[in-house]
Amino acid sequence: MSKFWSAGVADLTPYVPGEQPQMQRLIKLNTNENPYGPSPRVLAAIREALGGDADALKRYPDPDARCFKQAIATRFGLEPANVHVGNGSDEVLANVFQGLLKHDRPILYPDITYSFYPVYCGLYGVAFENVPLTDTFEIDVDAYLKPNGGIIFPNPNAPTGRVLASGEIERLLAGNPDSVVVIDEAYIDFGGETAAGLIAKYPNLLVVQTLSKSRSLAGLRLGFAIGHTDLIEALERVKNSFNSYPLDRLAQAAGVAAIEDEAYFDETRRAVMASRDALTARLEALGFEVLPSKANFVFVRHASHDAARLAAALRERSIIVRHFGHARIAQFLRITVGTNDECMALTDALKAVLGQ
Prior knowledge:
The chain is an alpha/beta fold. It has two domains: 19-38 and 263-354, Aspartate Aminotransferase, domain 1 (Alpha-Beta Complex); 40-260, Aspartate Aminotransferase, domain 2, CATH 3.40.640.10. It is built from ten helices and 13 strands. It has helices at 40-50, 66-76, 88-100, 116-124, 166-174, 229-242, 249-260, 262-285, 307-316, 340-354, and strands at residues 27-28, 83-86, 107-110, 128-131, 151-154, 181-184, 205-210, 223-227, 288-290, 297-302, 319-320, 322-323, 333-336. It is globular.
């Protein structure tokens, strides 16, 4: 702590991102990155954006990212005015907390969820209330049908991977007409159904997505929100009061290409889902309980083996998975779905650790 810090900084509890180790020959299954590279059209678009032009990077990019917004709007049957973009969905969510979720009443989100939510609440002074997941780690919509300052949750939830059905989402929206409902769909493309089709019916709905997972662009930081123009205007006001140029020229070009290459997107996401299902079967055969997942990861525990010790034993074999310290999930591991070879290496290592 320093005497030069602003008031409140010492009270912040920063987000701890997944480890990015520098180990050699590492099987990295801890941060839910896509095991497949981005669309070849993305790389071509980046090269074209440079185009050998010496002036290409000395000029500021389009502050409104109009081409990127148009690509997103076209995909979802919306208008660019329904789209807000940012430097990864983390920045988009930061704008959401600041622009839409700071009210007199506390916001609601699950007790087990994306750990950036309490960080943003602390940073922006947003009151919140944790709503417990059920005993089977599902969202209980009835628990959210009460006065609140807004609602936010991932769908599928993180780190559980469990998905809330579209009918339940609509019941939640209808039951909270005076609150913004933010659905964080970082993993929706791996088997869930997006709520984007409900935007025209519910002006209180905001859907947030990222290109880090299903579009394999975690390294470029591209995220967006879609919703009613009144919600988007609030986010644009926050963005333009903080950073008018959140997306660089190359990221915008890459984002358009990634969104427009539907065939590659569908091919790779289906490959991940197939690997997830096969990995689930192999883990269950080893005695693990695997929660039903519609994400690019699985959330598992073993009745006879401590999760932290399993994670440490895998690390000794150069395989990194994620272990969380939250009391309710301390015996779970979150395992990213890798390539088929990586998933096989994981289960082979677990067989050795478990003595099977």
